[in-house]
Structures are given as structure tokens and as C-alpha cells.
Amino acid sequence: MKKVELIDLCRDYVGQVDKGSTYHPVIVEHMLGRVINTILYEVFSRRVSELDLYTKTFTFDVDDGYVDISSQTQIVQFPGVGDGVRAVYPVENIDVMFYPITIENAARNASMEYMEVDNDIPYMVKNTRVEFISDMSDISQVKMDLVRPFEAYDDDEEFYVPAGQDMVMFGQVLELLMGKPPADLRNDNNPNRR
Amino acid sequence: MKGIIKANDLVNEALMLTRRPQSDYGLVFQHLVNGYRELNTHQAVGVKYEKKQMDGQRMVDYPEDLVELKYVFVPYHGQPQKLTRKPLVPTTSLMYGERRRNVEDGENEPISIQTRGNHALPHNVFGYYMQNDAERWIIFLTDSRSEVVLAYTTNGLSADNKYIPTAYKEVLLNYIIWRDAFFAKENMNYILEAKRTYTDSLRELEKPNVNYEDFVDAWVVNKTVGR
After folding, report:
1. CA torsion B170→B173→B179→B185, rounded to 10°?
2. What is this structure's pTM?
3. Domain extents for chain A?
């Protein structure tokens, strides 16, 4: 289902139950985002490698040994090293592999024997930056498979609700929205009177 | 499918078989480096040979990947003639950053190469050597040869050699699983089972590879099998 359709469906569903209430699409989008985050965690936290359906490939320029993800999109936090960065690979035809490591291991790696044998490149994910540990002078661009939050999807982009979670998702969105007071539509400069 | 496999391909295979995330790549690679060295050093799956030219002071530096020096030989009529170790007086030192030997006495006393006749001495005519593991060099005492061949066990992997014979694949995979379970403090049964699997595969690797002709040759010509 397209993202915009999912939001409309949610608004319609919530409006039927919570009679008379209307919610701005952006509010519904953010609430859906929170619920989807929770559902993805519950479904995939033990099967992180099966998140392929929720990844999208982006191409980034490598600048001074790092990539700034926020220039194009956002990523989710997720259990496992690398978080929302599921894979990194070079755009050019270079025989090199990237793998995620933690900051703790990055410090140790420099003195490990295998680093003398191996040319592959470890990377760390720090907030919106992906930092590469080894020399990146031969690599000017990388492709990344990223898992993004629901809010970062385009309106007409497909979003797949995890199997069996549809009703859970609508129920939780309804629960979040029904506790929210209605919008203040009176032009009386008084936030306490609606 | 080849007779030789790249080290990082073997690491990726180990990750896939053990269902580990890619973030464990470095950890598994280090297990592989350790396992291959273990195999080379203690299981004697192979000895590496390297020809070396002595420097002006009759010394040779260890190759970078040398773990243990097995023996030193010079070729003589197509056969390896082993040199023997001799405990020399170590007078080699560094002076102003340069390596020096005391040529007057101790290490550089010349020896006779007279091996026949009434005055023959029980010398190894080809020379003696003394190895210094701490400084990683070999000092030679010879007047007749300046080129020697070192036979040594190797680290296995290095920046120049990233390949492993496929015959060792099973042993190395089992080594990785065993050591990883041990360090991860898995339950005792699993660790022991992993170790047993490793030693079983090691035994498979050590099956003697000697044929009938080798035996006949050893018996008749008095050669050492496998040399």
C-alpha cells in the first residue's frame, strides 16, 4: 500500500471510531511512524537480516572518509551494529567489502593481525554520519542500503505492513490519537478554551 | 571450486554457516589468522623454504612471516645439506644504529674447511649457524657458502599471501567454531563437542600420504620418506 493511502485509511478509521474528530495528516503520519517503528522492532529484532523489504539503496559521495546520510534521508535505530545501515558497497568496480563495527572495536582493530592481511573496510555509524576506518582514497562514491523511518518515505512510495500486524497497527494508532485533545480552532488567544 | 581459497572468502563462508552478522567479520577473521598459524606451527602441515643471501657480516635476517626456524641447508649435488647449530659467543651488537659483529673472536672465528686427510676436523664443512630469536637474525660461521636456504614454519597469512589451500578449509572452519564458543563462554558440552569436531578434522588432515614407491625408495636408496 502507498504511504499516502495508508495515512488516509488510518484517518478514516480513526474518524469512524473517534466520532467527530479530525486529525491532520502529518499528525497521523508521525503516529503511524511511531507504531511502525515498534512493530518492526518486535517482528525483526531477532531476524535483522530479513529487513530487505524495508531497505532502499542510496548513492552518496564520500567526503574526507565519511558519508553524511542526512543530506538525502534518515535512518532508524535498530538492534545490531550498523543500525539502519544494512549494507555498504562501492559504486566503482573495486574488489572491496564493507562491514560495520562498533567504536569500541574500531580502536582495537588497528592493532589486530588480520588488518594486515585484509583490505576490506570497516565502518561506524555515528548519528547521521557513516565513518570509514580504512583508507578511502580510491573510493569516491558508495551505495548504501538503508532502513528509513516511515516519515522519510515519499507519499507515493510503497510501504509493506509486516504480515499479521495490520490490526495491531490500526489499533495502536487509534490508541495514541484518541488520548490527544482536539485542535484549538477558536480565535480567542486562549489555549485552555477550545 | 578451486584448490585454493581467499582468506576473506573463507571468513564470509564461516559467517554464513554460523549465521553470524557481518559485524563479526573482524572477530572471525582474527580466529582464522590464529587457526592458520596454529596449523602451520604445531601441526606441521608444511614448511616454507626461502633462499637468502648473507650480508657482509655473514648474517641473515628472519623473513617477516617466520614463526619457528626448522633448519638451514645449502644445496649440495642436488641434495639438501643441513647446517648444524653451534652455540657461539654472541658478541653482535648495535653501534650507532648499525649492526656489528666482533670479528676478532667469538662469532667470527674462521673454521677450517679441511675435511680430508690426517688433519681433517669434525666440522660441518658447509658451516655452522647460531640463531637469535629475540633479534630475529641468524649468524653464520662459514667460509665456503654465502647463500643458504631457510626452512621454517610460517604465520601462513600475510599482506602478500591471502590464500589458503582448500584442503585446510574444514579444519579451519571447525577451529573458528571451537575457539569462538570457548571465548564466548558457551556451555561446556557445546565447547567440548566443537573441540572434538576440530580434532577429528585435524586427524583426517594428518593421514599419511605415502605410496608404495616411497617405501621402496626409502628402503633401497636409504632416503628419508617425505623429504
Report:
1. -120
2. 0.77
3. 3-178
